[in-house]
Design a protein that fits this description.
This protein has 346 residues and is of the alpha/beta class. It folds into two domains: 2-77 and 317-341, no CATH class; 83-310, 3-Layer(aba) Sandwich (Rossmann fold), CATH 3.40.50. Helices cover 40% and strands 18% of the residues. A six-stranded mixed sheet has the order 5-4-3-6-7-10, sandwiched between helices. Strand 3 (86-92), helix 4 (106-120) and strand 4 form a beta-alpha-beta unit. Helix 4 (106-120) packs parallel to helix 9 (296-307) and helix 7 runs parallel beside helix 8 (276-286).
Length: 346
Amino acid sequence: MSFERPFLLLTLLVVPAAVALYVVAERRRMRYAIRFTNVDVLAAVVKGRVWRQYVPLALFLLALAALCVGVARPQRHTLVLKDRATVILVVDVSRSMESKDVKPSRIGAATAAVRLFLDRVPDRLQIGLIAFAGDPAVAAPPTSDHRLVREALDTLPWYPSFGGTAIGDALAEAVRLGQQAVGTPNGNLASLSAAPSGQTRGLVSILFLSDGAQTRGQLLPLEGAERARAAGIPVYTVALGTPNGTLRFGFGSPPGGVPGPNPFGTGRTVPVPPDPATLKAIADRTGGQFFAARDAKSLRAAYVKLGSRLGRRPGQSEVTYGFLAAASALLIGSGLLSALWSPRLP
């Protein structure tokens, strides 16, 4: 803990001064105690209650100390919101996300985790949402109105799920969107390599969730990661699913295939394991962090952790109000106990 005005901590000297005044007052009062001639009655009044006279005093002194600390404006080390901070959420919506090895399904668990993430982030944090399978699509541009992002989550099932998984292209689109959010001029894919990294470094983060290996796209995953690294944008990756995850296909296309008759046969079960190695490499390349989520619980835990961290920086948060509230409560308690326990003659 630190203090904005540490020199005001000298006001704590009033606490020992108050104790000294109390001791002097008690000694003066004892000089006149003999005026109560019936000592037996006086002893009966105070017997067993000596400790009570010190409890209100102790509460009063604690309240005084809390007030003295409060005027020094105490601050605690915490995470505070970065100005213009932006988080781009990237969610895989390919066919394999329909697998039910994560309950209720991979896409269902991912949507629930993103909603939990939105509950944890600061209200002023800008959030953008990208859905991708064979091609990335902006579901919600970066906005501090998180209600719009929640509404965009409901539309994820409407995005095309066929055509494979384009991880590299999705990363590049997230970088472009993040640069655009913090005011990078001419924010298009062609100018990404020339965009100065100083404009996004420390302001933009990407939270990338996928359950499969790349099967199509113009950019390889690490090429997309390199664009994020060059822009100073860390990518936090989540590999969703279990190694034994499967999906049952009928007429249509298998993961990474093209529309048409399913070459695996009608009703064939196809394995759809995640690709944690690639997603971990992306996080390592960009200075982010990798999470392996094999069930809904671990997925929620990862999003809660990231929701409490992303878009924030180490800083100071004033806690003066806490000391003032404590002082008020102690003063009220001291007054009530003093009135309740004050000696009364029979």
